Fold this protein.
Amino acid sequence: MKKVPRPPKQTGTTPRSIPVNDGSAQYSFFQNVWDVVRQIPFGRVTSYGAIARYLGTGSSARMVGWAMNASFNISPKVPAHRVVNRNGMLSGKAHFTPPELMQELLEKEGLIVKDETIQEFETHFWDPAVEL
DNA sequence: AGTATGACTCATT
DNA sequence: AAATGAGCCATAC
C-alpha cells in the first residue's frame, strides 16, 4: 500500500473544520492519518509520533490526536484504539465511550494492558514508516 | 484577532 | 531519573 504521497502541508488557510468524510471530502491530513491507522494489523499498535513522522515531521503528533478525535464520526471505522503515545500508554482512553473500551479492545486483540500501558509495547509496535 | 488548549515528542535542566 | 520548557498546528472561546 504505501500510497500516502505526503500531503503538501495544507496549512492554515485550508478550510476544513473537522473534515467529515461526506463524499466531497478533499484529501486532508486527517484522511491520510485514517488511511494509515486502518492499515494497522490486528493485534499491533503504533504511536501518534510514528504516524506524524510518516506523513512528514512538519505535521506534529498533536494533529494526529485531533484526527483520532474526529475519527469517531467517519464512515470507515478507524481502529483508534491501536494508536497510543510513544510510551505505549493509552493516553486517549478517556475519549472513548466508555473509557474502558479502549483497553478492552486491545486485550481482545491479544495485547496485555497493565496500568493503562501496553506490555511489550515494542514487540507489538507497528511503524508505518517501516512497514509501509 | 489574540490567547489558551490539546488523544504528542524531544531536548534540556 | 524525573520535571520542565519549547516546538508543533488546528480548534475553541
Notes: Residues 44 and 72 of chain A are 20 Å apart (CA to CA). Residues 1-26 of chain A have pLDDT under 50 and may be disordered. The longest strand of chain A covers residues 46-47.
